[in-house]
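From: lab user (bench 3)
To: helpdesk
Subject: output format question, protein + dioxothiomolybdenum(VI) ion

Hello, I'm new to running complex predictions and I'm not sure whether the block I got back is the full result or only part of it. Here's what I submitted:
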Amino acid sequence: MNRTDAFIDARVGGHATESAAASNDTAIGVPLPHESAVLHVSGEATYTDDIAELHGTLHAALGLSRHAHARIVSMDLDAVRNAPGVIAVLSAADIPGENNCGPVLHDDPVLADGEVLYLGQPVFAVIAETHELARRAAALAKSDDVIRYEPLAAILTAAQAKAAQQFVLPPLHLRRGDPDAKIAAAPHRLAGTFEVGGQEQFYLEGQIAYAVPKEMDGMLVYSSTQHPSEMQQVVAHMLDRPAHNVVCECRRMGGGFGGKESQSALFACVAALAAQRLRRPVKLRADRDDDFMITGKRHDALYAYEAGFDDQGRLLGVRVEIALRAGYSADLSGAVATRAVCHFDNAYYLADVDIVALCCKTNTQSNTAFRGFGGPQGALVMEVLLDGIARELQLDPLDVRRTNYYGIGERDTTPYGQRVEDNIIAPLTDALLDSSDYRARRAALAAFNATSPVLKRGLAFSPVKFGISFNVPFLNQAGALVHVYKDGSVLVNHGGTEMGQGLNTKVAQVVASQFGLPLARVRVTAADTSKVANTSATAASTGSDLNGKAAEAAAQTIRARLAELAAKLLGGDASDVQFAHGSVSVNGGAMPFGQLINAAYLARVQLWSDGFYATPKVHWDAQTLTGHPFYYFAYGAAVSEVVIDTLTGEWKLVRADVLHDAGQSINPAIDLGQIEGGFIQGMGWLTSEELWWNRDGRLMTHAPSTYKIPAVSDTPAAFHVRLYENRNAEPTVFRSKAVGEPPLLLPFSVFLAIRDAVAAAVPDANGAPPLRAPATPEAILDALEALQVASVASTSGATVTAGTSAAQAPITSTAAAEPTERSEPT
Ligand code: MTE
Ligand code: HPA
Ligand code: MOS
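Helpdesk reply: Thanks, we reran it on our side. This is the complete output you should expect:
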């Protein structure tokens, strides 16, 4: 068994094996291992901190604010300067250019100037001989003698910010039809509130930058970033130099998950500032706790919703308000909120609808991109609403979902005006219900729950429709550079970055297939702003769609030149030339690829080319929130089964069945990995990962000791993940579909299954269990208790509204309450 076979056999589902039979190992659709898989597991893969340090390298650390909101009265940094090993201490006054690292608005200081806006904000940077000494000196920021503050009133939660009408950007409002009238006239109505927590990206490699000064005011910045071009731009502005003086390079990240789309900038800027001032290489590597304290996370959200519906649960009118906690600055919150608005519909047709999204300004970390980019926050509340409607009507939530699905040729226009033209959600659902045995298991569960007093099982289905493209149209462009060397080996550079998602493997497969070469003949280099200019972030799941197409275009240009020469040498027509299995053939003759390259070089044929791609069809009107923001949609669905312990609140995912649409997959092994990883990561968001700030605005969950991401033991014993047989309706690269983010929405089914189990525990209670997300054991116990109280109340005639807690008023729910003090972790 070769390595690839072993790789596939280790997977559940095994759709991949069908195409694996292909003998040409460059073939598209072959489940080849990640190009760096061996390096990842052997420890040889070079991350930014592994780059051999140049002689004279210094290390930076950041002094952080101790207040959520305060005026800086005075700073006396002498004690820091005199600490052992310290070479320099830098503050805002040392920045020659613009003191900003914000990606959209210029409201994000690199180092605080005069005022601190959140607890954890960098105020000064220490540069020392070693990483350890820099950290020790930076910790002096805790002393009152170093920085004196005048504390100001702080707003910490979205609810508080909403009450104070404090936003980083104006509210977004999308309305179609007359939802108020439709809700008023509907046979049934449901109103409620809901809340979901944020999520730390928890990339295993933390934020890091290594800046090396170059001649003539040049600066080379190695950065663990999803967005090298943005790092180049902000560093150039901050140093007050033209962009051509700055190069940013990223070989790979140990994960980004959105957290390095914009927020790698602060680290790149501080390292570059120090390197420029001291004329020495400077590295800034954030310790995990500092990374948690400084950087933004997924936006948590508070929702208030109201819907009118008929006897089948079909939505007639619906309103929702989504209040996102943006943090102290805008960062990417506008685009995140826009994606939330555009994903409230998820897979459902909403004829009459009103959606408001608020970017609440708070004195906390500036929340940012995280896998799904607002899409999960938009769609989750819809799924909770439909679950509530089903419970109200005592229907299977699955049937209520299907009743509301987008149609084909009718009921197919989204609230933002784009028609859903590639809808496959109904057949995908049927296939999954079949393979997961949903109906039979629902009956088995009811029988189990009837006889099990403490353990209760829950089952849920949830679908996903996710829009692919940056929702800012101009970002949908990419470039690539392909070199064929005289020995026939190929080097590819493209505008995307590798963060473990397998982008480089897919791009290499695309280029190798153009030349009919084995994958080993194609090498992908580090992302580098001096090779491809003005790139977009590797984000919005578009990495392989954009860069795959750009690299394909570059390779096609070279191949056309080679085909012309081959036809000249072998006779025949250039359009008949075949590139396969390492050789080039036409007109009955053939020659090895390397031999043709040699001939081409001698004939002075250009053996390298650039390539460019701009996604067609996309447009967007940010004023009316309408247009065609997505080139196409990716679909998926999942069925999850859980068991909860009603005495302790503990729970376990017993089985998950996933069917996901990656179009015609370029690499099924990588795509299955993305689906599994996205599922488990989304499950962590909705169940175990809980961010908690104390009343001073100090994030208390800033390390794995207090912040629980899923471990391998949290994956279900039965995990059936399969690709849905499909090809993209649009001519994307090999008709594939983006797969990076959409699977994060699949574990909605896990959360809903926990709700189902909670509901099963209190069968006489009316309506949906008031379970908040994340559904930690505490949240599960709270929901059980509230349901028991509600059940007693309803038998005595009182009415209950759906919500995170039956006793709470709409939207100003638990998150609005004063956070309670909890002891500091040691
Ligand atoms: N997979 C791994 N292993 N590591 C990551 O950081 N980021 C996700 C997803 N999958 C991520 C990942 C996010 S947020 C996005 S937008 C996409 O990958 C980006 O890569 P792509 O566009 O090439 O899919
Ligand atoms: N995803 C990620 N990043 C973005 C987007 C998006 O949709 N739009 C603008 N930046
Ligand atoms: Mo992904 S959140 O678009 O980096």
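A quick orientation on your result: Residues 226, 258, 261, 369-371, 373, 539-540, 741 surround dioxothiomolybdenum(VI) ion (ligand 3) (CB under 6 Å). Let us know if anything else is unclear.
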